[in-house]
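Appendix B, Record 12. Input sequence as logged:
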Amino acid sequence: MDSDILNIKVVFLTLDIGNSKTKWGLFEYDNLISRGVFLNTSKTPEFWNSAGITDIVYSASGKIGDPLKDFINNQPHALNLGNIPLPFLSLYETPDTLGRDRVAAIKGASVKFTNTDLLVIDAGSCLTFDFIDQNGIHMGGTISPGIKMRLKAVNAFTDKLPLLSEIPNAIEPLAKNTSSAIGQGALLGFLYETEGYISYVKSHFPKLKILVTGGDAWIFVKFIKIKIFAEPNLVLMGLNEILKNYVEKKGWN
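Logged structural output:
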């Protein structure tokens, strides 16, 4: 660790820019001191201007709204995660297509747990699985529809099946009406896919640790009866670690 960076006050702003919303976190070096969410089209939080922000890192899987774009462009030290190499070793054959939210989650998980086989599950718009071995090498993973996307697909690709707005909060495999059948199908498919993936990886790596994040991670916490670690701020933590390492090793031109 570079001691110089610890001798000055640093405030890092991390931005996880999605399709419609931006999640943000303010860090004083390693400590998350504030976080929030706003619509991509909304104005940026007023207090950012007086927060003493020294450096910014952002990951964009969606379109950056004009207010946020203007804010970023006015900062002297802003790092676009999409413009730097992967911050870890990976066997992924197309690293440029590895989603930057996945990159940040993998980095955050690798810092939280070291020297162990690790499965990172992100339950957001999509359900992603990423495996990191005990040497810190990203071995690959999968992408499938998230639970809300499954519910939307049933409605979008049929003429008569309704769109459900809520995820079931209980397991009832023998549903007695169509809406319930759709909800249970989405929920059980989501859970069975996850349990099956975990079972497969654990059969090869018995000491596997499992870390979950994302807006729908509560489903795993509630229904999956195996030991998992939930970290809702994993992507923000990973972004902060990437920015911290960048500032320590390279600084700004």
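The chain has two domains: 3-86+236-249, 95-235.
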